[in-house]
């Protein structure tokens, strides 16, 4: 860092709330998978704004479309029809096999709507105190209801009393799910991420997804799958649960859907599509013309450029290169425990906490994140090339080896 670094990068920011332990960098602009900070230093972006910047930065077809939209109308309110809401909803319906969409602006807002849907689904059936099954290590957001659904005490601490009506179970254990709900007539829904993101890149097994789908059908529960992080093509299918050949009843989306423009959506199938009636739910910003244009163009460009196939191809390339480079560490019980995930949603779990790697990688020109204390998370833009993936490996792996060689 040179003398041009403004003081707010060095100390706690004087005027914004102290909510983030930030890396002392401010990004000024980007192109593709490359970003530059305000001092002109380049970085390779393997974080993608936390799985948000699907098309990378300054995309040559997204940017003109957004400029066109901004010059026409940014926001109009849901008092009126927004034609691109219908267009984007039709596209999401086509891609998901579900039927209807509610638009909002963030992931927690999509999940909050899903939780309301589940409760009203219960009330409509005469269940006065509906209960929803949620999972260990889950992350669903930071509103009071979604942090209550989240399976992380750090997120919940200091914000009690939590919202009631959640039953928590372990991942990938159908017998545990059956036992936790046995004889309980108040259960209305099962709610999880296909691949947990913040929880440490923890995938639900295909067989488990199919078993839960079947159980939900048998018991008339809603299957609600939070695809906020793992959805929108990141695993090589539009939605990660599609690898199991199942459909949820409710699917919250956000992060990658607008390539950086705030947007959220709840996609519902026949069992949940008509639960909300006028007056039950709404939002000021949700579905506004700018966000809708971003969603429409993001999906159009993803299709035109084959970005799902790219996620599979470059994800496999990245994973193979990491596995090769870290072969010795993967054999060492005190080294790398596992490389997991799908497509361009990969986690590298170390046998020790590794939060300091975020800063060390940034110093070497690579943006990553570490989640669940010991899991390096790679969720780059879906436009990443194999050569860029090689560059990620070339910067990251020596730093992992160096960290593992230090005494903890
Ligand atoms: C990020 C995330 C959320 C919360 O999204 P926000 O836009 O930050 O509210 C919810 N669920 C999952 C799976 C996420 O990764």
Q: How would you summarize what this structure contains?
A:
The chain contains 14 helices and 17 strands. By secondary structure, it is α/β, with parallel strands linked by helices. It is globular.
Task: Give a written overview of the molecule.
- The strands form five sheets. Strands 1-2-3-15 form a four-stranded mixed β-sheet. The chain has a four-stranded parallel β-sheet with strand order 6-5-7-10, with helices on both faces.
- It is globular, with a radius of gyration of 21 Å.
- The model has no long low-confidence stretch (mean pLDDT 96).
- It has two domains: 27-58 and 306-405, Aspartate Aminotransferase, domain 1; 73-304, Type I PLP-dependent aspartate aminotransferase-like (Major domain) (Aspartate Aminotransferase, domain 2), CATH 3.40.640.10.
- The two termini are 27 Å apart.
- The protein contains 14 helices and 17 strands.
- Helix 3 packs antiparallel against helix 10, helix 4 packs across helix 10 (289-304) and helix 11 packs parallel to helix 14.
- By secondary structure, the protein is of the alpha/beta class.
């Amino acid at each position: 860092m040179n003398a041009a670094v403004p003081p707010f990068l060095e100390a706690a920011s004087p005027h914004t709330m102290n909510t983030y332990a930030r890396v002392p960098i401010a990004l000024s602009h980007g192109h593709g998978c490359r970003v530059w900070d305000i001092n002109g230093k380049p970085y390779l972006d393997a974080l993608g704004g936390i799985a948000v910047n699907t098309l990378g930065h300054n995309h040559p077809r997204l940017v003109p479309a957004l400029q066109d939209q901004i010059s026409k109308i940014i926001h109009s309110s849901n008092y009126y029809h927004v034609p691109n809401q219908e267009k984007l909803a039709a596209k999401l319906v086509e891609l998901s096999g579900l039927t209807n969409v509610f638009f909002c602006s963030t992931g927690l807002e999509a999940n909050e709507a899903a939780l309301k849907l589940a409760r009203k689904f219960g009330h409509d059936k005469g269940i006065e105190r509906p209960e929803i099954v949620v999972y260990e290590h889950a992350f669903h957001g930071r509103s009071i209801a979604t942090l209550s659904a989240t399976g992380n005490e750090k997120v919940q601490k200091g914000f009690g009393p939590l919202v009631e009506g959640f039953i928590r179970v372990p991942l990938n254990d159908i017998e545990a799910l059956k036992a936790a709900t046995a004889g309980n007539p108040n259960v209305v829904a099962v709610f999880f991420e296909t691949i947990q993101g913040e929880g440490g890149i923890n995938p639900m097994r295909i067989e488990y997804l199919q078993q839960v789908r079947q159980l939900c059908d048998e018991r008339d529960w809603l299957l609600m799958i939070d695809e906020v992080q793992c959805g929108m093509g990141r695993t090589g299918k539009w939605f990660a649960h599609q690898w199991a050949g199942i459909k949820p009843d409710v699917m919250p989306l956000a992060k990658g859907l607008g390539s950086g423009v705030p947007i959220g959506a709840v996609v519902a199938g026949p069992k949940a599509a008509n639960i909300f009636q006028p007056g039950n739910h709404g939002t000021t910003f949700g579905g506004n013309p700018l966000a809708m244009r971003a969603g429409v163009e993001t999906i159009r460009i993803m299709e035109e450029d084959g970005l799902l196939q790219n996620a599979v191809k470059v994800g496999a390339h990245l994973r193979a290169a990491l596995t090769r480079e870290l072969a010795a560490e993967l054999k060492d019980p005190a080294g790398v425990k596992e490389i997991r995930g799908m497509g361009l949603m990969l986690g590298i779990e170390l046998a020790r906490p590794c939060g300091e790697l975020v800063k060390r990688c940034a110093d070497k020109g690579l943006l990553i994140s570490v989640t669940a204390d010991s899991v390096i998370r790679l969720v780059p833009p879906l436009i990443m090339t194999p050569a860029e993936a090689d560059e990620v490996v070339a910067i990251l792996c020596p730093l992992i080896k160096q960290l593992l060689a230090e005494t903890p």
